[in-house]
Amino acid sequence: MNGLKLFLTCVVINIYFRRVTASHGTGQCGSTKLFGDNGIHDFDDITSNSNYAYMMNDEDLIIDCCGVIHRWDVTVEGVPAGTTPIYFQVWRPTAAGGNSYELVGQNVETVTSDGSKTFNIATANRITVKNKDRFGWYVNGDDIVTYKAGGREFDANHMQAMASAPTVGNTVSWGGTIANDRSYAIRVVVDPNTDPVFTNTQWSISVGNAVAIGTSLVKLTVNDDDSNDVSTLVVTMVANTKYSFDTSTYILTTAGSLGADGGTSTELSFRVADQCGNTGSATFTVTITNDPPVIHSLPNVISVSEDETLETLLHTLNVTDTYGAPTCSLAASVPAEWPFFMQKVPGTSDYGIYSESSPGFNYVVKKSYDIPVECTDGFLSDTETLSVKLIQNTPPVILNLQNSTSVSTTDPIGTTAFYVIATDSTNDDITFSMTCSPVVCPFKIFNSGEIQITEDLSGHTVVGYDLQITVADSRNTVGPRLLTITIADLNDPVQLTNIPSSVVIKENSAVGALVYTVSFSDIDTSQKHTFAMTSSPVQGLSYFSIDPSTGQVTTSGVINYEALTATSFILGVTVTDPVTSDAANLTVTVSNINEAPSFAQSSYSLSASEGLVGTVIGTPPFGLADPDAGDSVTLTLDCGSQTAYFYMHSTSGQISYQSSYDLDSGSLPSAVTCNLS
């Protein structure tokens, strides 16, 4: 429920006009001062002029003070039948000087008969005269104003023919005829001007301290009983930097900020003056209000989840003040440990109430907070409350577990195996996690609840996996719940059946000789199976190879035991089907066989003389070679029927006579062929 706010502002701008006693200006005319001849009743001369204007310019007739004409006296003669107007006039020298004069006032009166006439001028029609003004008249038709020649004559009386009476504001050059030595039967009676006055009926005005610069406060009104003075009145104000006064419109406006002036008073002095220097004055007393700021958006109640962890804008203040922008803050009574603060909302001039990052809300410990907020303009303040209600967290719910499903070995990586559906009534962010049995499994769960395949299943041999799945929000964990995923159309693995094993092969076995036939088993008999082989050391691949189709290991090069750097080779055999493979080792050992020594040549020859027993015949250059390093070689000599005559040393091969050999006996040949071994 919104509360009623009542603001009592006891300070207003009141403008009081206090009249001050008027003062007369210097040069003011005395009461009933007369200009002209006193004996005008006896004047009886008349000119023959027609349509003439006259201006009295004798120094004794020139107006020498400031006042108003309240009476005209005139003696007329020769007044025609009917009504004849006389234009009584006041002329004022212009800035041009010389004979240039402006008609500043004119009273029109009528006569119907001859004689002395007195015309009292109503207040509203009185002409204001000033020092150096001249009076005169104009008659449309024959002259009727009398004069007297001689006696107390006045000089420099201007007369000038005019077709019609001039109007007020006309400027005339009085350079025409001048009449001297005559007194005209006309005079004026001048009284002092009345003082101007302020006439406002509104004597007070109220504004707040937030009033805009240039705001009109009041229009002054002034008046003067002397109607000629009204248009000349000058109103001024004693200068004040906070206010401006337009002397042409009489409007008072604010000229500076009043924001800091709440509760203060200022007196403004005004003065009005007429053209004779008479003045009136008034004092305005200005008192300024200061309105407090107003928080419009509070009190208010908002709800926040106890799970909230981010810095959060809870409420944006709507606050106004009649002057400027108020400053807002959490009230001093807010406990320091409460997780709230106030700052301006970024990018705006508005204040916001925030909860801190990781505020540690706990519904069980504290269900709500009433946060007082204060806004001040430096003078007055407004305080309202934001109530924060915590929403208790509820645990998430898993809707579709426990459950089971299956996938195919042909399903690619990224395929969805299952969607776990969970809800949270408080709309908390929820996260999923899982464990597998077996521990290593080809599945992953995302926070959306989606379970995806993460590996190529075509090579898998495990029939199925049990996934234990949990779901959690920031406060509660639910589960685990079981999901069983089986892998359909699983490939049966190929298996080697007769290795690991070891075999021995003799050196010098023929190239292509069968060493071993590797065998395997696979329930999927229709699949193609391929063999491959490695060797350690790698030189074994120079001597052995495997048929990729049959698995037969054969020799692929000449094997010389004596030339080998290693005599045992570990052959790594792998058999693969389109999905699986199996590998094992076949150890091949090369056995050494005894090899016959050899002669460097197929025949040798020696020449010797016949000789006695023991005579050395020589040693042939046999160049014996034996692949079996370390074997001892024994030489034998077979010379057939002459073998008994010759002896060969079994190791050095030196041949000598073991029986005397004499060719002269006639029975021994001169050339003998022997076989060596």
UniProtKB/TrEMBL annotation:
Give the signal peptide as a residue range, or say none if absent: 1-22
List, alphabetically, the Gene3D superfamilies matched.
Cadherins
Q: Would you kindly state one Gene Ontology biological process term found in this protein's UniProt entry?
A: homophilic cell adhesion via plasma membrane adhesion molecules
> What are the annotated GO cellular component locations?
plasma membrane
| The keyword Calcium is annotated on this UniProt entry | yes
Any idea where the Cadherin domain is? 382-502, 497-599
The organism's superkingdom is given as Eukaryota
List GO molecular-function terms, semicolon-separated: calcium ion binding
Q: Which PANTHER family match?
A: FAT ATYPICAL CADHERIN-RELATED (PTHR24026), PROTOCADHERIN FAT 4 (PTHR24026:SF126)
Q: What is this protein called?
A: Cadherin domain-containing protein
Q: What is the phylogenetic placement of the source species in the record?
A: Eukaryota, Metazoa, Spiralia, Lophotrochozoa, Mollusca
